């Protein structure tokens, strides 16, 4: 199987009714026609074998996750998907692997009407690079730098499940006692981007980010960009039944420093509480108020009695 | 040096006066504002160490080439650059390497007003993935499927120089006798995208492609997409002084099956000959008529006396 056969067989499909795609795979460039007057949102993520996923990872889940982490970036911006490119380095052209990978990739792509429009295929150590494009109305983007003192701090879904599942797979001692983790495994392998919620919050929330490196680190990015601080109620953090089996300090560590959550962390004025609750219900996405933005820089974790908890910030860093 | 320091130090710059970039590096997505009514052209290329470039390749040239091959795709579409993302897997955070890489990258980016707007940085086997965005007027794109029987076949610049330089570096016997190759080395390491010519041809030429895998293979893509054939005058192919030192059959092989040329191959009606000559002069880019599009499928190579030459097609294929 040659390079062009590989693309034709596994990645070129009838483009279907995606009105925004003028020209898809097979030319020097793809051509997209955004809605007139809209802005284009762009994000790129590179996943490396042995770094972002285990060697020998199940390819269908990998296809899902590679796209999901990019869709999550669009969600965090409040953008609507237009399409994506896939650049793929493969040690060899393995037909069964490619079939499963493409199945996982396109199942998610179809669900969000986000077509593959182009890319590159080459031989090399396994590496997946997806660049995604979305669109949104000017002025409505959920940027990191828009948080204001007094804003409520919200998070979607539940935190820390993927981290617990990861620690269990890595053989970490404290994560072995909790038994099977169907939710955690699902969260780790098949994260669900919060696109409906992100789109609904555009123009309502002041700022947002998706939690990929852990609540602590990603909240830190929002605070730094917005030049504000935050006070987070640790006891308000949404706890999952699987995490509840752990001792409390491990629960907190997973929720605060977890990573791979792909939940939305967002800041919104207190007047928007009812609207946010209504929007989240319409999106069938649970949301929880976990704290408040403060005028002074710094991130403070407090328990339900207001006592400050000395939590170390440990965001993931590829070159730390 | 951590991941975020690395990005700040080497890749985050004052965005300057790029009106099309609403939001650059540092958020979940970059935000671009295309010219109202325009289409977006998108292309993605992945360069792998030991595959697309030699291990230990000079990083400044690598920064140039990684962006140049993407700009060349925009040129081949007739699009104007808007910006690009860079996803980078690095074995380690080597400050000197990154400084030189960024110098080569930004020198070219600045020359074409094509800002870096986002991307990803991770640890892994050296891999560079650039996705580039351009814009163009609807209906003016230089697609591969627009060639028509009777069209002139044109090529910009000269072909085969990069291939000769590559063979010499690889130690291939026939390429050793030609002596130093300053032009070939320049073409191989620092290719120049034909953006001015591509932009000028939009709306004038019927079809175009950039020659990255070799004239034979890339012309084959145009013919297949347009469902036509072509007759190419081998003696009309633009020969460089460095290639002229080779025996004729090696000259032809380099020009026909070379690769890494990043010249534009385009098809245009005979009535446009004068206009094309004028546009090419205005762009200071030499162009040569090398043949004609035929109604019947198939690619025929002929000499100046009209004799058919039996040239094997040997386009580059990563998985052949």
Tell me what you see in this structure.
Two copies of one chain form a homodimer. The first copy, chain A, has 320 residues and is α+β, with helices and mostly antiparallel strands. Chain A folds into two domains: 3-136, PurM-like, N-terminal domain (60s Ribosomal Protein L30, Chain: A); 144-307, PurM-like C-terminal domain (Phosphoribosyl-aminoimidazole Synthetase, Chain A, domain 2), CATH 3.90.650. In chain A, 32% of the residues lie in helices and 25% in strands. Chain A has helices at residues 3-10, 59-77, 95-111, 161-170, 182-189, 195-201, 215-226, 248-257, 273-282; strands spanning 21-23, 30-32, 39-48, 80-90, 116-123, 127-136, 152-156, 207-211, 229-233, 263-268, 287-294, 298-302, 308-309. The first copy, chain A, has a seven-stranded mixed beta sheet with strand order 8-10-7-11-9-12-13, sandwiched between helices. In chain A, strands 3-6-4-5 form a four-stranded mixed beta sheet, covered by helices on one side. In chain A, strands 1-2 form a two-stranded antiparallel ribbon. Chain A starts with a helix and ends in an 11-residue tail after the last strand. Chains A and B meet through helix 1, strand 2, strand 3, helix 2 and strand 4 of A and helix 1, strand 2, strand 3, helix 2 and strand 4 of B. Chains A, B: Belongs to the thiamine-monophosphate kinase family. Chains A, B: It holds the Pfam family AIRS_C.
